[in-house]
Design brief:
Blueprint lengths: L5 H6 L6 E2 L4 E6 L3 H18 L4 E4 L4 E5 L9 H16 L3 E2 L6 E8 L2 H13 L5 E2 L2 E2 L9 E5 L10 E6 L5 H10 L3 E4 L6 E5 L5 E5 L5
Parallel strand pairs: 6-9, 10-13
Antiparallel strand pairs: 1-2, 2-4, 2-5, 3-4, 6-10, 7-8, 8-9, 11-12, 12-13
Length: 215
């Protein structure tokens, strides 16, 4: 299977879905548990027919869906096809989507030696010191956010080593940044926008608002 680029996904016209780091995400506003449960059942039938299955989170007012081709480690045409079928199902049932809602949080840790600290963080977060893939600590069960190691030079002076990467839909980034600034934050660096924008709180703690554009 061929992994689709961000532009190819945008060109597919999936109005209900947004590409975040590695997958397609959508939130459908079912309004109540019974409607959500019936919608999930319908999605399950579509998935079985397609031989391809999304991750599903059912809550009282909404259903969150994630689509990715794990065997290709990215979004492929079969994800796009199933996303369209799910949106058609939602439309027939009068269920709308909230394309600005999907959000993925990753943790980034500065280090000059990922191999020295990787097993510790893997064991702490997942219970398995071997749950390290390259520069990432990965929990296959999805219990904790992905932790990735950002390579830096060695340093002894204490400073912030962690920062959050907050992935949002490409067309929701400006509003998210504006909300953070209105709440007392500042924009530290937007040279790489819309790929990522560095923000800081009133005490200088930093985070990045990230999108899949220009990557």
């Amino acid at each position: 299977m061929t992994i689709l680029s961000t532009q190819e996904i945008l060109d597919a016209g999936l109005d209900d879905w947004r590409k975040l780091p590695q997958a397609l995400h959508a939130r459908f506003l079912t309004g109540d548990f019974t409607t959500g449960l019936a919608f999930v059942s319908g999605v399950g039938e579509l998935a079985e027919a397609a031989g391809h299955h999304p991750d599903i989170a059912l809550a009282y007012p909404h259903v969150d869906l994630t689509l990715v081709s794990h065997d290709a480690s990215g979004v492929t045409g079969r994800d796009v096809d199933l996303a369209r079928r799910i949106s058609d199902l939602a439309g027939r049932r009068g269920i709308s989507a909230d394309p600005a809602a999907p959000t993925v949080v990753e943790l980034a840790l500065d280090t000059a030696d990922p191999t020295a600290i990787g097993p510790f963080w893997a064991a702490l977060l997942t219970g398995d010191a071997h749950a390290v893939a390259g520069d990432d600590v990965v929990d296959p069960t999805g219990r904790v956010p992905l932790l990735w190691f950002q390579h830096t030079g060695a340093h002894e002076t204490p400073r912030q080593r962690f920062h959050l990467d907050v992935w949002v839909p490409h067309d929701a980034a400006e509003a998210r940044i504006a909300a953070a600034v209105a709440a007392g934050g500042t924009v530290v660096d937007d040279a790489a926008a819309p790929s990522f924008t560095v923000l800081a709180d009133a005490e200088g703690n930093r985070a990045c608002v990230c999108t899949t554009l220009d990557r």
